[in-house]
Amino acid sequence: MDNKIIIGIAAVAIIAIIAGAVFMGGSSTQRTDDSLVVAAYSHGGEPESGFDPILGWNYLAEPLIQSTLLKMTPNMTYKNDLATSWEANDNFTEYTVKIRDGVKFTDNTTLDAEDVAFTYNTVKNNGTSDLDFGSFENATAKDNNTVVFELNTPDSTFVDKFAYLGIVPSDSYNNETYGSHPVGSGPYKFVQWDKGQQVILEKNPDYYGKQPEFNKLTILFAQNEAAFNAAKNKEVDVAAVPLAFANETVNGYDMKLLDTIDVRGVSFPMTNNTGEKVEDAPVGNNITADKAIREALNYGINRSQIAEGALNGIGVPNYDGVAHSLPWANPEATIQDGDVEKAKQILSDAGWNDTNGDGIVEKDGQKASLNIYYSASAPERQAIAVMIGEQAKEFGIEVNATGAEWDEIYKHEYSDLVVWGYGSTDPSDMKGKYYSESFVEGTGNPGHYNNSVVDGHIKAAMAMDRNSSFAEWSKVSWDGSTGISPKGDAAWLWAGEIRYGYFVDNSLDISPSTALLQPHGGDIFSNIYDWHRVSSIEK
Amino acid sequence: MVNSKKSYNPLSRMNLRQKTLLTIGLSVLILVLVVISSLFINSSDITTNFKIMNQPPSFEHLFGTDWMGRDMFTRTLKGLGLSVQIGAGASILSSIIAIAMALMGSINKYLDSLMSWLIDLFLSIPHILLIILISIGLGGGAFGVTMGVAFTHWTTLARVLRADIKQINTSDYVKLSERFGKSRLWIARHHILPLIVTQIIVGTILIFPHAIMHEASVTFLGFGLSPHEPAIGIILSESMKYLATGDWWLALFPGLALLILVLLFDIAGENIKKLLDPTSANE
Asked: What is the pLDDT of residues A276-306, one digit of tens each?
């Protein structure tokens, strides 16, 4: 009797699934021409701590509700936003920023230098943000329009932070309530946050910059296939979808593939496992500590195949984690990969041989068997992990994939391979990945990479003017004799740059020519000021 | 009239037995085939081929292919094999736990009430919840899921066995053996075990469908196994994502296969019950 019930439930479930597939579509909420409904908060989904820049709201993307001191332009230079001018001293330890006059928060208080100083100092002191504020010491308001930022070490990349952090009002800011009731000076003002579902924003009539065309902006937190379904049901103007859906067609929508600088790659633990632990997570891996293994993987893996397959033919192979469109990309870091013979040669030269005929090489009784972790909710990372496993087998390295939640992955980040996503218009992103101290500080560098020459390049670049530092940053990848790239220490296994795919309603022009390159964690709203409804929405 | 009735009756009885045996034989054969063929599939041999992504069923790929171009027939077969293995492990473990509990209950009345309390405790927590908790607690993976299912499915069998043992303990022959000075162990071996062995076998087989369904639901919910591994629940949950794009074969065939597998176990179990427990044959 009981079994019959279970079987019945199973049958009903299957029928429901099929029926769901057939009847998908139909109901649609009403959209209007002067408002936007967008399921494209593409990266981390709903912000857990709300819309508080101090706690990490959209610092890599347009914060919408707040405004920033500077804004990036499509050619990757900075233009003034809240700031009217800025300058740094010769060794980049002190920045002076002049603030625009007469800017109002949406609660009608005035934004002045004190608010700016308050925002930066609070980020530093509360330390909950993912922003790298390591070099920042403090900010002081000299007068109503002048803020002085003091750094403890030369850092020419501090200017990048000016474009990250939305400014909050110092008088009313409360770290417990601000996230759910944000007040700012951005193009939109906050109306309502339905947790787990959507956030509704309204145009800020007092915004000092270019007014966006749309009076209301609703951001749905639907992701992946849910976003795709929303587009199919004509419920949204823009839907961000995973690459796997990029080749689908949806009536009334165009697939827009936007370039990003978001790169997927795999970190290698660089040190031997000595039993050391950091917060209960073991450190080191005796197999990947051997350079031959890392080199063999870097030369043996076929990145073009990964771009063609795992990245659905719209990815670009990448060798050093720096997207090719960034000014510090280093073409010298490129290698001829997919070379299985070379990989085998590297392994056997280093003493890794298959002695027991199982197809996997061994050395000193240790089998070249690695674990790779990927985020279970990211299909392209899963595909990369699976493809690396398949390809590595051909030259005798076993790579077992495990999909997990991030909580679980962080327990393995120092001792196993992890598929990461990185990419920023801020070159200090490289400091986070490769600077030896970053591991010690726990701000990055999961593989515990330590090369004093690379550290030297990073330090030197941080002390140079931003534009002239690019050449120095590219030396981190490969400077002719060493670096993090496969030719050097092969510190990571970088696979490919991805693109972001959006279904955009035919009636909407998202102005791709003025869109910023999206960093890892970025979003589509960088040029929302230029979005334009070219025709009425087709119902 | 009388003659024909006489000749009809034995034939009918023969038929039932033959039919029962035939049903058992057939379903067991299919199940064994599934398990054996899945054992021959090495999960690392189900390779990706992005040139043939999301292809509908064809003679080359009977169940079609998925978003990484993997053959769904082999994935489904491997998944079913995994389900049966987890099911087998879980039901045998469950039975062992159930027997141990039932025997423990027969020692004295304190242990007996402890056992009923344990049964009530386990029954009061939703199975799925408990399976998820246990499998996460044991570090996930196939092992975690097996243990999770095993530790939640022993209760019904334990209850049946407990009732049976209680009944047997009050019978005259047990009392007589006690008077003769036979030990509790001797009684358990010679009087109780032979009578409950049918229940144990049938019970174990009937836990199978439950175990498989629960394994599928837990992996469907994303607990236990990684999303690239071929478990039937994972295959089904992944198929949900591609229904919107019209890839119906990803859900239909694995779903049907799971349904048939569970049905086969149920049929086999019910028929074996008829064979071993003749009173139920007349139901």
From this structure: 888 888 999 999 999 999 999 999 999 999 9
Residue A281's φ and ψ, nearest 5 degrees, are: -95, 125
pTM: 0.85
CATH of A53-185, one of 3.30.70.1060, 3.40.30.10, 3.10.310.10, 3.40.190.10: 3.40.190.10
B259 reaches A (C-beta below 8 A): yes
Question: What is the 3 state secondary structure string of B188-209?
Answer: HHHHHHHHHHHHHHHHHHHHHH
Window 239-268 of A, Cβ < 8 Å to B: 244-245, 248
**To the nearest whole number, what is the mean pLDDT of chain B?**
84
Query: Which among B48, B262, B266 is the nearest to A390, CB-wise?
Result: B48
Block residue for tokens 């009076």: A215
Q: Residue A435: which residues within 8 A CB-CB, separation 6 or more? A: A444, A445, A454, A455, A458
**Residues in chain B closer than 8 A to A225 (CB atoms):** 240-242, 244
Instruction: State whether A401 and B226 contact (CB < 8 Å).
Output: yes
Domain B80-278 has CATH 3.50.50.60: no
Hey, of B27, B45, B50, which one would you mutate to test binding to chain A, going by the most A CBs within 10 A of its CB? B50
Q: How far is CA B256 from CA A19, A354, B222, B250, in A?
A: 15, 43, 20, 11
Question: Which CATH superfamily groups domain A263-497?
Answer: Dipeptide-binding Protein; Domain 3 (3.10.105.10)
Residue A103 contacts residue A224 (beta carbons within 8 Å): no
Residues of chain A neighbouring B242 (CB-CB closer than 8 A):
225
Full 3-state SS string of A498-535: EEEEEEEECCEECCHHHCCCECCCCCHHHHHHHCEECC
ipTM of the complex: 0.76
